[in-house]
Amino acid sequence: MGSGFSSFLVLSSAPSAPAVPPETNLGDLPESVVGSVLVHLNPQEICRLAALNRAFRGASSADFVWESKLPENYDSIVSRVFGDGNEFPSNLCKRDIYARLSRPNSIDGGTKKVWLHKGTGRPSLSISFNGLSITGIDDRRYWSRISTDESRFKSVAYLQQIWWFEVDGEVEFPFPAGTYNLYFRLQLGRSGRRFGQRVCDCEQIHGWEKKPVRFQLSTSDGQNAMNECYLTSPGNWKFYHVGSFVVAEDSKVAMKVKFSMMQIDCTHTKGGLCVDSVLISPK
């Protein structure tokens, strides 16, 4: 009995094994910590990480994460794009506001489309030829309207022949601070489809090799830019750079931008040109 009692004492006094702490993983991180990481990522990366686990999914919906991706004046942009009606719900979270602004939204009777550039979070704006002032556009001897899937507006203006070529336009928009480029989207030749293949009729192209086209822009705060170049690359859509303008950090009013392109040497005609749109995009 003595030896049995001694064995009991030895077993009772033996130290117990240390408790093993439970393993931790990314799912155990607080959402506030995850969110502080997500604000440094772009929207595509945030959406991909939201599929990792519950913590990332919750943090990816946080208002402070998506507010960092929105322009600082997004309220003014929402007002300009959606107006004061009931088209834009007032109770949307910042993620849903970003989603609504990221897809192309039509304004000004469908002549313009606005969306947020995913790389910079600043707005891009496209203006259809229907929103421009084009000399002779209503005279079918000179111009015609062509339906096409090659334009985001589903139609372009085609110039057969004219002596005085001039296209003007303007837009007023609450651009957030930054630098923006302005382009005309043009194509020499008339494209279409034949036997399921894209083809381009270049027979009417003429006059553009004689003199360059002059592109100009001016802004309501006194900025100006001008560029001259020959139109090239028949059968291909090209963006012709007009110039850049800068919106200051302390700007509180909408920027008005006027722009034009012209070739008004009346010693010769010019033709065979498709005019699609004007693009303003953040640099």
Strand content: 25-35%
What is the share of helical residues? 10-25%
Largest sheet: 8 strands, antiparallel
**Rg, Å, rounded:** 30 Å
**Uncertain segments of ≥5 residues (pLDDT<50)?**
none
Could you give the count of β-strands?
15
Shape: elongated
Q: Give the H and E element order.
A: HHHHHHHEEEEEEEEEEEEEEE
Structural class: alpha+beta
Number of helices: 7
What is the end-to-end distance?
A: 91 Å
Return the average pLDDT rounded to an integer.
89
Describe, in plain words, how this protein is organized in 3D.
With 283 residues, the protein is α+β, with helices and mostly antiparallel strands. The chain has helices at residues 2-13, 31-38, 43-49, 54-59, 63-67, 74-82, 94-102; strands at residues 105-107, 112-116, 123-128, 133-134, 143-147, 155-159, 165-173, 178-188, 190-194, 197-201, 213-219, 224-229, 238-247, 255-263, 273-282.
